[in-house]
Amino acid sequence: MSLMLKANPNPNPNPNENAKKTQIVDLGNGSSVVYVPKFLAYDVAWEFFNYLDNHIPWTRPTLRVFGRSCLQPRDTCYVASAGLPDLIYSGYQPHAHSWDDFPLLKDILDAVHKMLPGSTFNSLLLNRYKGGNDYVGWHSDDEKLYGATPEIASVSFGCERDFFLKKKSCKSPQERSDEKPPSKRFKKSSQDQHNFTLKHGSLLGTGYPCLAQTPICDHPCMMHQ
Ligand SMILES: O=C(O)CCC(=O)C(=O)O
Ligand SMILES: [Fe+2]
Question: Which atom of ligand 1 is closest in space to residue 161's alpha carbon?
Fold first, then answer.
């Protein structure tokens, strides 16, 4: 399960411990990602997992990808601050729930803001992968709503899963390639690919400008799954 973004105001009794293990990975071209493997204490993260698993109004929508209808291969739920433009991807417009409906999500958001000083996240896409067959296909988080240089924070819960980032080919379609099975989606030996194993309770931040030596980020040119 992952939150594309924000948990407990004091998730770890010793915040310095988190910071020490933080990794900043240079992707080249001025882009960096930050990875905090122990963003949330192990037991706290399991409490969050159980809450989210049981209390989020998960849905599994039908998407329209390359002219075909297909069931999104994961459950989802969307939370957004009031006044944001609608999120629409692959012909689907999720209902925007209010942060006020889920106080725990606000706690996660506060913790992310503390870990990434200067960040101000305003929407959250929750994804639940029910087993090894659920996945997210190659895509860029480049919806207009996110602006020219999207900043994304992802908090993961449950089983470890691989997360891949690669440079986007300019000719590739912008749509998510959710309909392709994982085996056909990527050759792991490809150059310019970066792999992260997202641990239970970890935080991954992309497109976060102050991570780069110069405040440049090219997340719009990156895609991931
Ligand atoms: O679940 C994840 O870690 C990634 C999900 C994702 O990339 C997305 O919803 O845009
Ligand atoms: Fe994404």
Answer: 3
Which regions in the chain score pLDDT beneath 50? 6-11, 13, 171-179, 184-189, 210-221
Q: Which two tokens stand for residue 22?
A: 């933080």
Q: Which atom of ligand 1 is nearest to the CA of 225?
A: 7
Overall domain count for the chain: 1
**pLDDT one-digit tens code per residue, 127-143:** 999 999 999 998 888 88
Cβ 198 vs Cβ 163: under 8 Å: yes
Using CB distances shorter than 6 Å, the residues near ligand 1 are 2, 4, 125, 127, 136, 141, 154, 163, 224
How much is the pTM? 0.81
CATH code, domain carrying 126: 2.60.120.590
Supply the range of the domain harboring residue 187: 2-224
